[in-house]
Specification:
184 residues, mainly alpha, 7 helices, elongated
């Protein structure tokens, strides 16, 4: 019984320390560049797409995990901006079907929001505010899913926008996956 009294405070202090400290620190990686991208993308829904997008930038060749997180957000943001521009150019066309115009209007709003959320995500990541990155990325994913719903539920469908939107969702989910890995 005396041994239990001596061990219990020690055990309790360990439990309290673990609870206060929260989650274990993020893993450290010895790899950089493409080898690290391959490791980070292991749980991606589309591993080849994830690796390709992460290594698409020259700075990825020697990037560490945090830098690949920045690259993932940057690629997603660029994709969202390009898709937003594509939608705006489509909306300028004359004689659009009303259903397609409605879909494009909805997706345009979604992508304007997504671009802002990805910019906020990048700022949060640079401040090591991983929980905020998670929130902003999930919100951007919701915007992409809302566009996807509009594309699939209405008569007005645009195959190019559907393809772009699918890629956008993959990019955001991969950025979210990397953020989860980086979160301490």
């Amino acid at each position: 019984m005396k041994m239990v009294r001596k061990i219990f405070p020690f055990f309790l202090s360990i439990v309290i320390t673990v609870v206060i400290a929260g989650k274990a620190p993020p893993p450290t990686f010895t790899e950089t560049g493409k080898a690290l991208a391959e490791k980070l993308c292991e749980k991606s829904e589309d591993k080849a797409f994830c690796i390709s997008s992460l290594t698409s930038r020259h700075e990825a060749e020697t990037a560490t995990a945090p830098k690949l997180g920045v690259i993932a957000l940057s690629v997603a943001s660029t994709n969202a901006s390009d898709t937003s521009f594509y939608i705006k150019s489509k909306l300028k066309q004359k004689n659009l079907e009303p259903a397609l115009e409605d879909t494009l209007d909805d997706c345009s709003k979604n992508y304007l929001d997504a671009v802002a959320q990805l910019d906020d995500s990048l700022a949060a990541l640079l401040s090591n505010a991983y929980i905020d990155v998670d929130i902003w990325l999930n919100t951007a994913i919701s915007d992409g899913e809302a566009c996807e719903d509009a594309l699939s539920e209405r008569a007005g469908n645009d195959a190019e926008l559907a393809r772009r939107n699918t890629n956008f969702l993959k990019l955001c989910k991969d950025a979210l996956l990397i953020n989860t890995i980086l979160t301490p």
